[in-house]
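TICKET: design request
STATUS: open
ATTACHED STRUCTURE:
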């Protein structure tokens, strides 16, 4: 266990960063980690089903990525629209920031807007002079490490086949490997977490435990909660799904702590008998989560995890390190580099059992 950011680092040759998806979603390689035996296997994603057991339930994030990347009409400023916070009022990221200080104005789709506020995180709060659809004509907000603008193919491939609830500015990339056919063969359900700008923000503290996540909107339906509560093992697809499930488990546990209930027989005047019960059931929930997972962490819901390979020194790498152990994760990443796996959003995947 380590809290030093430098202990969540590894060397990655730039040519292993996947710039484009494979022609077929299901053709990705899959590094399988067996935690109990500390064993690593090299498999294919299409073999996922053979690692599942009766009673397993896949839980996936059904958020849909918005075409949130826009440029001002003069092309001088880039915007990433994060959230509508009021009538004609938006929260966004900008580049370059020096052009959009408080009071600065520009136009988008011929609508004028002004910077009203700059948040502590450097985001801009802007107000338009009229209502417009800021996503009309926008492009997909690809991660910076792809080093290219998005094109028409990214509208389909930087989106899961089961995406249905618009609200994210980054894809839940572990879900990108699934086809409708593969998913139809496996028991599954969906939660929603709208991936926000925290995906793009590095850890800036030397002690990772001091990092603070941006809050992101999530929801769990009654149908999903029921399926989860009746499953033998939860297989989370992606780190965003992990954060939803572990947030829900903690909220439920707070309401379901051990209760001692005294029962006295009124007729016999007997001493009260103490009964103990504990509820670990997940309830339907919606709200925000800023849960940051790093070692040490007790997982209360997730039993297995399918995830992509993550950036060095990132919150996602600390999460998988908490789940599988930092040393085992870093050893598996070294193995993946040696075997020339494809990394990050459009890359290969890892199954942690």
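STATUS: resolved
RESOLUTION: sequence designed for all positions
ATTACHED SEQUENCE:
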């Amino acid at each position: 266990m380590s809290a030093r950011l430098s202990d969540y680092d590894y060397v990655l040759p730039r040519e292993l960063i996947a710039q484009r998806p494979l022609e077929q979603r299901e053709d990705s390689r899959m590094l399988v980690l067996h935690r109990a035996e500390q064993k690593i296997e090299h498999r294919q994603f299409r073999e996922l089903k053979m690692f599942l057991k009766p009673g397993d339930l896949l839980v996936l994030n059904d958020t849909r990525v918005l075409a949130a990347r826009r440029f001002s009409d003069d092309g001088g400023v880039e915007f990433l629209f994060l959230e509508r916070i009021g009538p004609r009022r938006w929260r966004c990221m900008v580049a370059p920031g020096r052009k959009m200080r408080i009071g600065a104005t520009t136009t988008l789709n011929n609508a004028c807007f002004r910077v009203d506020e700059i948040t502590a995180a450097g985001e801009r709060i802007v107000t338009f002079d009229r209502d417009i659809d800021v996503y009309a004509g926008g492009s997909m907000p690809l991660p910076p490490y792809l080093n290219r603008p998005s094109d028409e193919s990214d509208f389909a491939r930087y989106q899961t086949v089961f995406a249905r609830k618009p609200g994210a500015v980054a894809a839940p990339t572990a879900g990108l490997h699934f086809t409708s056919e593969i998913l139809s063969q496996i028991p599954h359900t969906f939660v929603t977490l709208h991936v926000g700008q925290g995906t793009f923000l590095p850890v800036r503290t030397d002690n990772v435990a001091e990092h603070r996540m941006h809050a992101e909107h999530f929801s769990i339906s009654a149908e999903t909660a029921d399926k989860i509560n009746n499953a033998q093992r939860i297989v989370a697809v992606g780190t965003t799904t992990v954060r939803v499930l572990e947030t829900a488990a903690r909220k439920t546990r707070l309401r379901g702590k051990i209760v001692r209930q005294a029962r006295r027989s009124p007729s016999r005047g007997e001493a009260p008998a103490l009964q103990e019960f504990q509820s670990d059931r997940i309830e339907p929930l919606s709200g925000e989560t800023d849960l940051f997972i790093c070692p040490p962490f007790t997982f209360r819901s997730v039993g297995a995890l399918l995830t992509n390979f993550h950036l060095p020194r990132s919150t996602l790498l600390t999460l998988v390190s908490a789940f599988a152990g930092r040393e085992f994760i870093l050893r598996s990443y070294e193995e993946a580099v040696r075997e020339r796996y494809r990394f990050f959003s459009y890359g290969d995947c890892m199954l942690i059992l």
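CLOSING REMARK: Helices lie at 154-157, 180-184, 222-229, 239-255, 315-324, 326-338. The two ends are 20 Å apart (CA to CA).
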